[in-house]
């Protein structure tokens, strides 16, 4: 039997994409801000309800560039409970990550833990809207305002997420970074974007992602090559037509898990944030000591049956060799993140997951 993976990319019918490819073949414009790049940027801004989008080849390059664009240096306070690219983007800029523990309900950075970590070297906060659950953006902004810090959101999981007031979660902080990786709710194979609040910031980011070029002969910064190609942009344009339905279908998968897994002894489900328009990007369960087997035994039990659930995010970023020597990486300083990493298991969730397969996963979990 074919394994069931934690996710399976959603793709449009191939024949719908062929006319887009034909246009690329005809024009021979493959990259460097061609017409698909421009159209996708505009369509995406419109879809997401934001004013300025800069497309990137992936979210990691976008994070590195976001930090460059705001000239962030010194120390940045961030979460250990994320994908390693969050902290790596700091290291690529010679910035020291300072890990703050997470909130036990949302698993996002806990604003109450931040102030004690601020030093004269602190220049910014880099929170993650983990699993697409919005951070406490108001509390984070208050701290940033009090201490004159920038806020750069790693919004890799947050495509299409809207706050209680209906605004896009991407409009908070100084910059937000999206990922369109194959494993994300919305994919362009590889891809990412920076959402900026104004045209000047977008312009600086657009220079930085194109080697610092302003025109044929002027280079204003030590930029990088972070551009998205026409292939990825064309796919993104087409994917926008389907993503609404894909998110709806993910919602149905999540509802079914919640119905059938509610009340299983030793299993906790994350609270659904009230009033938030969600994207159902991940479905984490927290396996506690009262569950009939350990989290790792459950992971293996599912694997043996061809169900490839994943432990996002275990190990914590702060446990990897390049981070574990940092003073803020001490496990006893990060008890909530430690426990989440020990307990979490992300179950398969994607639009084409059949109810029969889902029921098989649930039955295996329930034993
Ligand atoms: N910040 C955060 C908070 C992130 O979560 C991420 C990425 C980033 C930043 C960086 O974004 P990018 O630079 O990637 O745009 C995956 C992804 O590679 C990574 O993008 C993602 N987070 C992370 C949470 O998950 P792996 O090592 O688990 O991927 P992999 O290859 O094991 O894929 C998982 C499953 O997905 C596979 O078992 C099968 C399925 N799959 C995967 C790929 C790549 C497919 O069916 N098709 C595919 O093409 O990291």
Describe this structure in words.
With 367 residues, the protein is α/β, with parallel strands linked by helices. The protein contains eleven helices and 14 strands. The strands form four sheets. The protein has a seven-stranded mixed sheet, sandwiched between helices. Strands 11-12-14 form a three-stranded antiparallel sheet. Helix 3 (59-69) crosses helix 4 and helix 8 (243-261) packs parallel to helix 11. The mean pLDDT is 98. The site of ligand T4K has 24 residues, from helix 3 and helix 4.
In short:
This protein is an alpha/beta fold and 367 residues long.
Proportion in helices: 25-40%
Annotation field: number of helices = 11
Low-confidence stretches: none
Report the β-strand fraction as a percent range.
Answer: 5-15%
Order of helices and strands: EHHEHEHEEHEEEHEEHHEEHEHEH
The secondary structure category is: alpha/beta
Q: What about the largest sheet?
A: 7 strands, mixed
Kindly state the number of beta strands: 14
**Mean pLDDT, as a whole number?**
98
Unique bound compounds:
ligand T4K
Tell the overall outline. Answer: globular
Strand order of the largest sheet: 2-8-7-6-5-3-4
Please give the alpha-carbon distance between the first and last residues: 20 Å
């Amino acid at each position: 039997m074919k394994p069931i993976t934690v996710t399976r990319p959603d793709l449009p019918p191939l024949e719908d994409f062929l006319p887009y490819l034909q246009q690329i073949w005809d024009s021979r414009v493959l990259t460097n801000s061609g017409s698909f790049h421009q159209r996708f940027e505009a369509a995406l801004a419109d879809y997401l309800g934001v004013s300025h989008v800069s497309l990137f080849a992936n979210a990691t390059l976008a994070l590195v560039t976001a930090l460059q664009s705001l000239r962030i240096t010194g120390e940045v306070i961030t979460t250990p409970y994320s994908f390693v690219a969050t902290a790596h983007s700091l290291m690529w800029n010679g910035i020291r990550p300072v890990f703050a523990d997470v909130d036990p309900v949302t698993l996002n950075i806990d604003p109450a833990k931040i102030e004690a970590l601020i030093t004269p070297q602190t220049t910014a906060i880099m929170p993650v809207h983990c699993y697409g659950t919005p951070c406490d953006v108001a509390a984070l902004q208050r701290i940033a305002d009090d201490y004159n810090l920038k806020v750069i959101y790693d919004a890799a999981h947050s495509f299409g997420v809207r706050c209680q007031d209906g605004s896009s979660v991407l409009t908070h902080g100084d910059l937000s970074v999206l990922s369109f990786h194959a494993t994300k709710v919305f994919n362009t194979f590889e891809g990412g974007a920076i959402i900026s609040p104004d045209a000047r910031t977008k312009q600086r980011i657009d220079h930085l992602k194109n080697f610092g070029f302003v025109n044929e002969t002027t280079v204003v910064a030590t930029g990088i090559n972070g551009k998205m190609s026409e292939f990825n942009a064309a796919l993104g344009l087409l994917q926008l037509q389907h993503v609404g339905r894909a998110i709806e279908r993910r919602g149905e998968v999540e509802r079914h898990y919640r119905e059938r897994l509610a009340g299983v002894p030793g299993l906790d489900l994350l609270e659904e944030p009230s009033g938030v328009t969600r994207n159902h990007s991940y479905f984490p369960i927290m396996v506690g000591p009262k569950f009939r087997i350990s989290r790792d035994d459950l992971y293996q039990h599912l694997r043996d049956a061809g169900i490839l659930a994943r432990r996002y995010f275990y190990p914590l970023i702060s446990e990897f060799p390049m981070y574990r020597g940092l003073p803020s990486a001490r496990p006893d300083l990060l008890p909530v993140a430690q426990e989440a990493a020990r307990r979490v298991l992300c179950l398969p969730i994607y639009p084409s997951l059949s109810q029969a397969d889902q029921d098989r996963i649930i039955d295996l979990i329930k034993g």
